[in-house]
Amino acid sequence: MSPDAAALGVPTAGAVPRDAMTPVVTEVLRAIPEIADTSTLILARPPGFTYRPGQFTMLYAFGVGEAAISISGDPEDEAHLVQTIRAVGATSRALVSLTPGAAIGVRGPYGTGWPVEACRGRDVVVVAGGLGLAPLRPVIAHIRRRRDTIGKVTLVVGARSPDLLLYRDELAVWGRWGDMIVIPTVDSAGPTWGGAIGLVTDRLNGVARNPGQTVAYLCGPEVMMRFTADALNRMGVPGDRIWLSLERNMKCAIGHCGHCQYGPAFLCKEGPVFSYAACSRWLTVREV
Amino acid sequence: MTLPTDPARDHPFVIGLPVALQDMLMAAGRRVVLPAGRRVFNEGDPADRFYLLLSGHVALETHVPTRGTVRFLSLHADDVLGVSWLVPPYRYGFDATAIEDTDALAIDAPRIRTACDADPALGYILMQRLMPVMTGRLRTARLQSLDLFTRPPGREVV
Ligand SMILES: Cc1cc2nc3c(=O)[nH]c(=O)nc-3n(C[C@H](O)[C@H](O)[C@H](O)COP(=O)(O)OP(=O)(O)OC[C@H]3O[C@@H](n4cnc5c(N)ncnc54)[C@H](O)[C@@H]3O)c2cc1C
Ligand code: FES
Q1: Which residue ranges form the domains of chain A, and what is each CATH number?
Q2: Of B7, B39, B81, B140, which is most buried with the most CB atoms under 10 A?
Q3: C-alpha–C-alpha distance, residues B51 and B124, integer Å
Q4: Does pTM top 0.80 for this prediction?
Q5: Which residues in chain B are closer than 8 Å to A158, comparing Cβ atoms?
Q6: Nearest residue, CB atoms, A160 vs list B57, B61, B150
């Protein structure tokens, strides 16, 4: 094991705890179509299941397979477990096609999650790209419930085009609340789009009034997060208060198989959320 | 509509320039409000103005046969609209439309060009201001062309 891996506490091989790989069966209560190929499943939350913003589950489509999916609902809604899934292959397609009443397997929650306590008394910048808004929606829910204790909040959301903006109706509602600046931006658009066009990094001007007292949460394509974290860091937001959610293929989600290794870390256990200070070196290493 | 010029001195393109150059830009500029929906310039028009945007926003767009109008960049407060005025043949490369009521300083480009030709040191200072604008645009265009939101088949990372 490299010294880095040891410092990060990367798990070594050991016995898999009994039942760690056995999903709990629950029910799909609602399926909400979102953008193309993407649906949100509202599941009955299994008894005793609690989670932190930024954690994920392994969802099992019976007879097809398991996929790592971020939890995209309000952690304090105790009745439901909300997950947004894009159909890209056999498993995710099977998950997206589930209808109310269907049974689904859930393992988890896994991962470290976003350090949302750091919002308290500070300004917050949330930057999401594409499906990256899904794991950040619990952060928005957390902020909403504690709005009085948090400074200025800015949400910048990027997508390829307006029709691919996830939770577009909700973005409009959040913008209307008036206590959060919501800036959707797209790569290109037709003449009816009146919002911003360009990169999320182009919309960061002025987001950090007091950079030393600002925290940032980023999720989206890795290149987008790299440029955004760098831009915020140059503005003076400390690297240990900029957090990114990284993604690698997962199988066991409990630190045993090594599929999710990224640099010296296993993302399923040490991540998927890391501070920019911790992961900036890995982001520029090719083939990591 | 013509307004007093002073707030434009706080525009990032102007801040920190030698005072004489600031004065020259202000003298060549006129405060304008570009109402929402107004075509600011058309592709191919003589690039006889550039704009320091103070509020609101403007979209750069072009007509793509079979797709119609495609907007590919919006410019907001603190941005510079129109960079073709310094490069022959001095014609705008795209259409620009105000999306909101937009407050701007519209600067007489031929006048600044003539001053730069007469005084290359001054021209150099202005080029140093324009280059970051242009490299920033280039970077945005490159990253947009990479289509980062689409994952190519066969990759197992986002
Ligand atoms: C921590 C974590 C959180 C995640 N959260 C979510 C989430 O909230 N919602 C969600 O939809 N997905 C999420 N994913 C991605 C999801 O796990 C994969 O999309 C899923 O495992 C694909 O499995 P599959 O069998 O459907 O496709 P596969 O058969 O494994 O892949 C089919 C094809 O799609 C490509 N592909 C795989 N994943 C993706 C992807 N995410 N986007 C585009 N192409 C892909 C593959 O490279 C392959 O070419 C997350 C992944 C991780 C590691
Ligand atoms: S070690 Fe198996 S998925 Fe992380």
Answers
A1: 3-110 (2.40.30.10), 116-283 (3.40.50.80)
A2: B81
A3: 19
A4: yes
A5: 149
A6: B150
